Amino acid sequence: MVGNDRRIHNRTAMSAKVRVTHEELGEFVFSTRDISDGGVFLVVDTEPFAPSIGDKVQVQVQGLPVPAPVLDMVVVRKTNDGFGLQFADQ
């Protein structure tokens, strides 16, 4: 780990459309910026999506030839341009 970076897993740049479902806020479609073995970063520009750290969401990759699995994730980080999500089983 270097400096402030507390990440355990290496990130890989990946842009994909994902459907995010939050129990109270509803359903949204966002793009990812990167992914790792631990989670994913969602780019949230102007969407009215404002979960709290620790909130649980369900995420499903869109646009594949077959339906992708729905994954349980937890909001672990907020930045000016989006949210970091961690796989719930981590």
Give, in spatial order, the strands making up the sheet with the most strands. 2-3-4-7-6-5
Main beta sheet:
6 strands, antiparallel, barrel
Anisotropy-based shape: globular
Average of pLDDT: 89
Radius of gyration: 13 Å
* Quantity of strands, as a count: 7
Q: Count of helices?
A: 0
Decide which structural class fits the backbone. Answer: mainly beta
Order of helices and strands: EEEEEEE
Which residue ranges are poorly predicted, with pLDDT under 50 across at least 5 consecutive positions? none
Please give the oligomerization state of what you see.
single chain
Strand proportion, as a percent range, falls in over 45%
Percentage of residues in helical conformation: under 10%
Distance between the termini: 19 Å
What report would you give on this structure?
The chain has strands spanning 12-13, 17-22, 26-35, 39-43, 56-61, 71-79, 82-87. It has a six-stranded antiparallel beta barrel. The chain is an all-beta fold and 90 residues long. The radius of gyration is 13 Å and the shape is globular. The chain is built from no helices and seven strands. The relative contact order is 0.23.
